[in-house]
């Protein structure tokens, strides 16, 4: 059985839908490229900053590898490799997870906390420059509303597209 939809079953984007989609992609690329470049200038990557900032907000500056991977939308193995590089730089350390013999905890080090403290003002300036200061209050409210809609789970989100089409 073919899972490829027939040409008649495809809901092609209308011109206004395609313009909106492409505009969204351009915004994402522009903001991420700008903020990533600014973080790189101070020696951090976007994932470095996300790991540091989220660990700083956690009790005891600690998270399981699995929780952190889920938050970032990464696989555990990808985050584990990234954590190894951050650990080598002294930004975090790993500890055994007492609740999961195969897992580990990511713990923010003092050096990691200091690095985040030094990077945060520059990162906020970058976010303001590339995003916030270009928008007015109505734009920000609209973005929050849109993000809530897009972020809400829908039936079938846990299944691949080809399986959602066949039901």
Explain this structure.
The chain is globular. It has one domain (19-145): Winged helix-like DNA-binding domain superfamily/Winged helix DNA-binding domain (Arc Repressor Mutant, subunit A), CATH 1.10.10.10. The chain has 167 residues and is mainly alpha-helical. Strands 1-3-2 form a 3-stranded antiparallel beta sheet. The model has no long low-confidence stretch (mean pLDDT 91). Helix content is 60%, strand content 11%. The longest helix is centred in the first third of the chain and has 27 residues, at 15-41. The two termini are 13 Å apart. It contains 7 helices and 3 strands.
In short:
The protein is mostly helical and 167 residues long.
> How widely separated are the two ends?
13 Å
Q: What is the 3D shape?
A: globular
Largest beta-sheet characterization: 3 strands, antiparallel
- The CATH class: Mainly Alpha
> What is the number of independent domains?
1
* Secondary structural class: mainly alpha
Nearest-angstrom radius of gyration?
A: 20 Å
The total of helices stands at: 7
**Percentage of residues assigned to helices:** 55-70%
Major beta sheet, strand line-up: 1-3-2
CATH topology: Arc Repressor Mutant, subunit A
Number of strands: 3
- Report the order of strands and helices: HHEHHEEHHH
CATH architecture: Orthogonal Bundle
Secondary structure layout plus pairing:
Elements lengths: L14 H27 L4 H12 L4 E3 H8 L3 H13 L3 E6 L2 E9 L1 H21 L6 H15 L9 H5 L2
Antiparallel strand pairs: 1-3, 2-3
């Amino acid at each position: 059985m073919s899972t490829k939809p027939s040409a008649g079953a495809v809901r092609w984007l209308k011109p206004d839908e395609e313009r909106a989609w492409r505009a969204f992609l351009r915004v994402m690329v522009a903001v991420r490229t700008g903020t990533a470049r600014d973080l790189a200038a101070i020696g951090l990557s976007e994932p470095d900053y996300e790991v540091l900032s989220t660990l700083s907000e956690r009790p005891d500056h600690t998270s399981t590898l699995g929780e952190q991977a889920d938050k970032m939308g990464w696989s555990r193995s990808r985050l584990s490799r990234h954590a190894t590089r951050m650990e080598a730089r002294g930004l975090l350390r790993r500890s055994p997870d007492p609740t999961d013999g195969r897992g580990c905890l990511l713990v923010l080090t003092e050096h990691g906390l200091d690095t985040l403290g030094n990077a945060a003002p520059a990162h906020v300036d970058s976010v303001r420059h590339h995003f916030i200061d270009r928008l007015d209050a109505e734009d920000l409210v609209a973005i929050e509303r849109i993000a809530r809609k897009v972020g809400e789970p829908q039936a079938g989100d846990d299944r691949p597209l080809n399986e959602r089409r066949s039901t």
